[in-house]
Amino acid sequence: MPQVSDALGTTVRYTGECTAVVVVTGDVDLHTAPELRAEARTAMTQGARHLVLDMGGVDFVDSTGLSTLIVLLHATQDAGGSLRVACVPERLVRMVTMTGIAELLPVHETVAEALAALDAGDTGDAGNAAGGTDPSR
């Protein structure tokens, strides 16, 4: 069983009036998921209805981390926005796909692709239907 960690880093970059990119590094698990939720909600209170989670620096995600993605998806939708994930490391692609996360929210290869889809007004319901990439690649 993987050991849980308290090593999580987040950086928020506002890319528009109502959009923020949250760069996530480290582990998203039982101990660190509350920090990610808090950081994302803070960005939302600053006016960011649309969030892009840059997962390129994530080493590990447990079930609490996956639940956090769903919580943030609902929070952004309730605010009239959206949540997208980008740069999902190859080692996590299977987990995102097998759990159905990729069907609930758009998954993009890069942050630039996620932002371009937002700029194009693409707020589709699911990853591949919303211009996301096929996470099984």
How would the blueprint of this fold be written?
Blueprint: E1 8-16, E2 19-28, H1 33-45, E3 50-61, H2 63-78, E4 82-86, H3 90-98, H4 101-104, E5 107-108, H5 111-119
Parallel strand pairs: 2-3, 3-4, 4-5
Antiparallel strand pairs: 1-2
Description of the molecule:
- The protein is an alpha/beta fold and 137 residues long.
- The chain has helices spanning 33-45, 63-78, 90-98, 101-104, 111-119, and strands at residues 8-16, 19-28, 50-61, 82-86, 107-108.
- Strands 1-2-3-4-5 form a five-stranded mixed beta sheet.
- The longest helix has 16 residues, at 63-78.
- It is globular and about 30 Å long.
- Residues 124-137 have low confidence and may be disordered.
Number of E-type strands: 5
Name the strands of the widest sheet in spatial order.
Answer: 1-2-3-4-5
How far the N terminus sits from the C terminus, by CA atoms, comes to 27 Å
Rounded mean pLDDT score: 86
How is the biggest beta sheet arranged? 5 strands, mixed
Radius of gyration over C-alpha positions, nearest whole angstrom = 13 Å
Q: Classify the secondary structure makeup into a structural class.
A: alpha/beta
SSE ordering: EEHEHEHHEH
Low-pLDDT regions: 124-137
Helix content: 25-40%
